[in-house]
Amino acid sequence: MVRGKRQMKRIENPVHQQVSFCKRRGGLLKKAKELSILCDADIGIIIFSKHGKLYELATKGTMQGMMERYKETWCAAEAEEEAHKSLELKQEVDVLKQEIQMLQMGFRCMFGNRSEKETLDELHGMERYLENRIRLVRTEKMQNMFQEIQLLRNKDEMLEAANEFLQGKALEQNLIFNMPPATAGNGVFDGTPVLTGPPSPLIIQNECFEPMT
Question: Per the database record, which ranges form the K-box domain (predicted)?
Fold first, then answer.
């Protein structure tokens, strides 16, 4: 008979819960011992039951010794991480100091306030710094130029579309006002008025009529 997969949820029956705890605890400790023997590993397990009873296993030495070893390893890893962060912070501070020195030297050179003569390395460093700044300025300038060109192209396309629309409207108006005279079926003018230009507004003059006596 094939056993189905057990659903992982809390066992409500206290008797079944205690039986399952004892079986699985024994299996866990057994597997830990086997792993320690097969792979020569140091394994420590701490278990607290539902009622607070302690079960522990240290495959090599004592649990106290294993806890001390764990604490030392954890502290060493934390100290190494802190040292790495401190090194990164120190590198950032050094870079900022170099930039400040370059700016100060550039300021002195621009305004002629050179109290002491710079060394060749300092001049090379200032030259590299200025070249990098010029490169950044040129890059930003090219980006702004490309954006302006794109805006002008979009504006030109909008103007062309508006021009085509207005030309179409003007052509429609010309066709309406320049239509030939309407004729009947036999080709004789039927008397329908034809518009030859823009329609003029109608003016109705006011007239006074006296009542007949």
Answer: 86-176
In terms of CATH, what superfamily is 14-86? Transcription factor, MADS-box (3.40.1810.10)
Q: Which amino acid is at 45?
A: I
| Stretch (H or E) spanning 183 | none
From its phi and psi, is residue 129 left (phi > 0), alpha (psi between -120 and 50) or beta? alpha
- Distance between CA atoms of residues 183 and 44, nearest Å: 112
Instruction: Give residue 115's identity as a one-letter amino acid code.
Output: S
pLDDT digits (tens, 9 = 90+) for 30-69: 999 999 999 999 999 999 998 889 999 998 888 888 888 8
Using the CB atoms, write b or e for 185-202: b if 16+ within 10 Å. eeeeeeeeeeeeeeeeee
> What secondary structure letter does DSSP report for 185?
T
